[in-house]
Amino acid sequence: MKKLVIEKKANTPSVNFDQQTGLLKIEGRSIPENPGEFYDELIDWVKEYFNHPQEKTIFELNLEYVNSGSSKHLLGIFRVIKDQIQKGRDITVNWFYEEDDEAILNLGEHYKSSLKIPFNLIEFI
Fold it and tell me: How many CB atoms lie within 10 A of CB 116?
């Protein structure tokens, strides 16, 4: 399975999903014009990854801004992860947010309370 690497653009985050390390990272602004076009590839990759995952998987999100369309598609990734956790897979989500960014913190808290999966809210300066 190939790594999924997408460079950051003005309206889309960078993506670095690495099957060899089990580290799945999304960073940047997520306001694509067509979120399905962007996120469907990510969801498909994550589903394929869990056919032969690493013993430990870490999903890291460090997002500056997320529009509602992106939020819906991120939920699609989280649902795949939740299903895998229920199957006994060792997965942790690390949600990074800036010290004063209440919108991103609140979105992370919403996902954490809704999904009920190992979910760390990590503040940085």
Answer: 9
CB 53 within 8 A of CB 84: yes
Q: Which two tokens stand for residue 45?
A: 């990759």
Rounded Cα–Cα distance for residues 11 and 65 (Å): 10
Mean pLDDT rounded to a whole number for the chain: 96
Does residue 33 contact residue 69 with C-beta atoms inside 8 Å? Answer: no
Q: What is the pLDDT of residues 83-115, one digit of tens each?
A: 999 999 999 999 999 999 999 999 999 999 999
Q: Is 4-124 CATH 3.50.50.60?
A: no
State CA 97 to chain mean position distance: 13
| Phi and psi, residue 80, nearest 5° | -60, -45
